[in-house]
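Protein modeling request. Please complete all fields; requests missing the sequence field cannot be processed.
Requester role: graduate student
Desired output: 3D structure, C-alpha cell encoding
Chains: 1
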Amino acid sequence: MICQKCGAEIPENCLICEACGMEIQMVPDFEPEVEDSINETLLNVAEMVTISDETIHEDEEYTDSFEKQKNYFVLSLGCVFVFALIVVTTVLSIKTYQKSAGYFMKQSEEMLEESDYENSLIQLQAALNAGGNYEEIKFKMARCYQQLGQDEEYANLLVELIKYEDISEEGLHNAFAYAVSFYANNNQYELLNSLLQSCENTDIKEKYTQYMADMPQFNYTEGSYNEIIPLKILSNTSGTIYYTMDGSEPTRYSAKYISPIFLETGDYVITAMFVNEYGIKSPLSKVTYHVDVSVPFAPEVNAYSGDFNKPQLIQITAEEGCEIYYTTDGSDPDSHSSLYNGFLPMPLGKSSFKFVAIDENNVSSEIIVRNYNLTLDTQYSVSQAQAVIPLFLFENGLIMSLDGTISNEDIRKLVYVFACCTSITDESDYYIFSEYILNPDATTIKTGNYYAVDAYDLSLYGTQYDAGTGTFALSTQRLK
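Delivered output (480 residues):
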C-alpha cells in the first residue's frame, strides 16, 4: 500500500505510515470518477437481478418447483460472483491509480495551492518515480525549491534541465531564462558564462551574448605577409581587449586595444584577452605573423645642412610610388605631416627639417634631417619690405588708410603675410608676400594676389606663382 500523504510504501498490516505518521484508512476514499463507475456497475447488477426474477415468475407456469429453486440458486450464485468480481476489480483499480504518476501530480497540485512546497516535492518525486513527464515534473520541483529559498538545489535543477537531452525547445529557452535571471541577480557571472559557452543553441547564445566572454578574433589569419598589416582585434560584445606583442600573457595592466595595430617588417606573437563589462575573462587568443615589407629608399634633398646668404629652393626626390612628408618642429614625420608639393623655399634665419618617403603600403623610409641658416646681405628687413605694399596702395587710392581699410563703405582690410624669400631674376632676391582680406569678425580670405619686394632696394612688383614649376615670375611693370 502507498501512503496518500507522502507516497511512501506501507508494509502490510501497518495502520500508521512509518515515514510521515499518517493514520491509514482501511477503506480508501474513492475518487469521484471511481465512485461513479461503481454505482453504475451496481445499478446494472440490480437490473440483471430484477430481470432474472421476472423471468422466474413467468416460468413458474411451465416448470416445477425443483427447477425454479435450481434456477434461482444458479442465478444468485452468478450475481454474487459478478458482484465480487466488480469489487475486486474496483479495489485493484484504486490501488493502481494511487500508485500512478497522475495521482501524485494531482496531490502535488493540491499542496502547491496550499503553499505546502516540501510535501509537494515529495509527491513530485513519487510522480517521477512512477514514470511521469520528466520535464514537467522537474520544472515544478524547481518552483518548489525557489519558493523554499533553496538556491543551490534550484540552480542545480535548472542546469540538470538544460543538460537533459530530450528537453523541448520551449523548455530549453525557459530553463535558460530562469538560469540567466538567477545567476545575474546573484552576480555569478563566471558560472553564467560557462553555462552559455556549453550551449549549442545559437539563438540562446545570441540572446544572452552580453554575459559571454568569447575568445578574441583577429581580422588577419596568422602567417607570412609582404605588406604592412593593419591588425584588428574583435570581441563578441562590449568590454575591453588587452594584448601583448611579445608572446607574454596579457593582464589588466597590458596594452588596451583601441585602434588597428600596424605590423611592419618583423616577427610578432600577438596574445589577446577579452574582459566583458561583467568582469568575465575570455580564454587567451594567440597568433603569429611574419611581415617582410621592403623599405623605400630615403628621400634625396638637394641642399645639405649649412649657412646660406642667398635664397634657396629646397628640392626633394624619392623613388616612384612614394610621397614625401616633412616637419619643422623636431618631430618625426609621418603620413599626417606636411606633404611636399614640389615647392619648398628655405626659410629666413635658422630652420630644421625632417624628411621621410612613405610608399603605398604606408611603409616609411629612413628619416633625413637638414638644418639651415639663411641670412641675406641686405639692410632691409621683412617688416620694412612689408610696409611698402600698403603705402603704394594708399598713395594710389586703392585703400583709404595705411592700416589696410578698403573704404568707408567697405571696412574690411587688406593685409600682407610674408610667404618666402626667393630669387626671381639673376640680378636680385625678393621678399614674397601673400594678400589676404581681413573681415571684421577676424576671419581671413586669401585673394590669390602676390607682391614681390626687392630685398636690396625695396622696389615693388606684382608677381605670380607657377604651381607647375614651383617658381615666381615678376610682372613687367614696376609698381613702386
